[in-house]
Write a structure and sequence with these properties.
145 residues
Length: 145
């Protein structure tokens, strides 16, 4: 009787572990995309030079790794927030020109129905955007699964 209880307990623990592992891997979503910057941009605390890049999210709620075209990691970026994709915008980096240069505001990925917010607009910037088209879209290419 004692041996049967011990075997049952082992099976129950194994089933619980297997369930946790499968739920964890199902909720983790990996995203990969490439893009080509035509000019220098500030993105979070990083400054990226013109050229080809790749961005990888191992988990949509964690930081993204940005690599150069040669594969060298140059930035680890954490969004301020994550929301649904902006349907009126393409899959792209949405960049604005400021007095000090170009700034990445959003990464919109329509294929994954997600927008990563890096530097949201202030109230005064939102008013300005209503008057002038100051947002540029740098297209991204999603990696094939």
């Amino acid at each position: 009787m004692k041996k049967a209880r011990l075997t049952f307990l082992k099976l129950a623990v194994a089933a619980a572990i297997a369930t946790c592992v499968s739920v964890g891997s199902a909720s983790a979503q990996s995203l990969k995309a490439t893009f080509n910057l035509p000019y220098e941009v500030s993105w979070g605390k990083a400054v990226l030079q013109p050229g080809p890049y790749a961005i990888t999210f191992d988990n949509i709620h964690g930081p993204a790794l940005v690599r150069t075209g040669t594969g060298r990691g140059v930035a680890l970026l954490t969004p301020n927030s994550v929301g649904l994709a902006m349907k009126d915008q393409p899959s792209a980096l949405l960049i604005t020109r400021t007095e000090t240069g170009h700034v990445v505001r959003y990464l919109n990925i329509r294929e994954a129905d997600m927008t990563f917010v890096y530097k949201p607009f202030t109230k005064s910037e939102r008013r300005l955007i209503g008057q002038v088209d100051v947002t540029e879209a740098v297209p991204i290419l999603m990696a094939q699964k």
